[in-house]
Amino acid sequence: MKTKIVQKSTKLFLNLGFKSVTMDDIAEKLAISKKTIYAHFANKEALVEATAFYIFDQISTLIEKIENEKINPIEETFKIKEVVSHYLKGEKTSPEFQLKKYYPSIYAKLDLKKRNIINTCFKDNLQRGIKDGFFRNDINVNLISKFYYLAITAIKNDALFFEDNINEAMEYYLEYHIRAIATEKGLKTLNKILIK
Description:
The protein has helices spanning 2-16, 23-30, 34-40, 44-69, 73-87, 95-102, 104-131, 141-155, 158-161, 166-181, 184-195. The protein is mostly helical. The radius of gyration is 19 Å and the shape is elongated. 21% of the residues are buried.
C-alpha cells in the first residue's frame, strides 16, 4: 500500500503541484481513507519527501542505464535530457521550484543528492568527451560541470522561464553548451543530432 500511495501521489504532485494537492485528494484518488495514508506517513511533508526521492531515484536509474550504454558523450547528454523531459512531461509547474519554496529542508536534501549525481555523471561525460576527441582538451572539467548544473537548475525556475517551453529552453541550452566546448568532431556530431 505504501508504494501505491507514493506512486499515485507522485502523479498528482507532478501534475498539480506539491502545494495544491491535499491528503484528501490523494485518499480520494486511491479510494482509501486518510487514516490509511497516515498509517504510512506521519504528515504531508513526509509524503512529499518520499515522492520527491521516488522521482529522483526513478530518474537516476534511467540516467545510469544511459551511461551504461557508453554512447558518445554528446548523444548521451541529449538522450538524458529526453528521458528526464519524458519522465516529467506532466509537470505544469516546476517541482523543484515548489519544493524550494514550500519544503526547503526537503529541497536541500534533494539538491545535495542531485548535485552529487550531476557532478559524477557529468564530469565522467566531459572526461570521456575529451578522451574521445569530442570536447576540447583545454576545458576546465570542474568549472564546466558547475556551469552546467547552474544552467539546468535555472532553466527549471518558473520565475525566470515562466513564458518559455522548458524542453525547448533546455534544447537551446544544450546546443549552446556543447558548441562552447566541442572540437570539430564534436560539432559534426552535434549538427547530426540537431538535424534529426
